[in-house]
Amino acid sequence: MDRAYAQPLDVPALARIAHVSEAHFTRTFRATFGETPHRYLQRRRVERAMFLLRETDRSVTDICFQVGFGSLGTFSRTFRDIVGQSPRTYRKEAVPMDVPTCFAMAWLRPSA
Q1: Least-confidence region, from 1-5, 20-24, 70-74
Q2: CB contact set of 22 (below 8 Å; sequence gap of 6+)
Q3: Distance between CA atoms of 58 and 25, rounded to whole angstroms?
Q4: For residues 64 and 59, what is the distance between their CA atoms, to the nearest angstrom?
Q5: Is the pTM of this model over 0.85?
Q6: Domain limits of the chain?
Q7: Which CATH superfamily, name and number, covers 11-108?
């Protein structure tokens, strides 16, 4: 999921990859990571979008589709739920970072 976050992934496909039932996959994933597979995937997509909003001048719509969301409305609503502000507001207030991406991701990781 971390590597293929922009791909259309769903629980049935992930469970097949893991060779377990959907229910077992979801239960085990939640116990291990503290959130459902769907929410984890949304968070990974939003983290990537945060980077692109900070570091590029691509449009919000382009970023939405690049990170794997199917609609701008879903992207904006999910981004606001996780980050606490809209993608446009985040872009206005974000400051490009002169540190390695792994540090920026750790410091800026959404926790909601």
Answers
A1: 1-5
A2: 11, 12, 15
A3: 36
A4: 9
A5: no
A6: 11-108
A7: Homeodomain-like (1.10.10.60)
Measured distance CA(41)–CA(3) in Å, rounded: 10
| Three-class SS state of 96 | coil
Contact 80, 86 (CB under 8 A): yes
- Token pair 């597979």 is found at 37
By the 8 A CB rule, do 25 and 18 touch? yes
User: Is pLDDT at 102 greater than 70 in this prediction?
Assistant: no
Give the span between the Cα atoms of 36 and 42, in whole angstroms. Answer: 10
Q: Are 25 and 67 in contact (CB under 8 A)?
A: no
pLDDT tens-digit map of 33-89: 999 999 999 999 999 999 999 999 999 999 999 999 999 999 999 999 999 999 999
Distance CA 53, CA 30 (A): 29
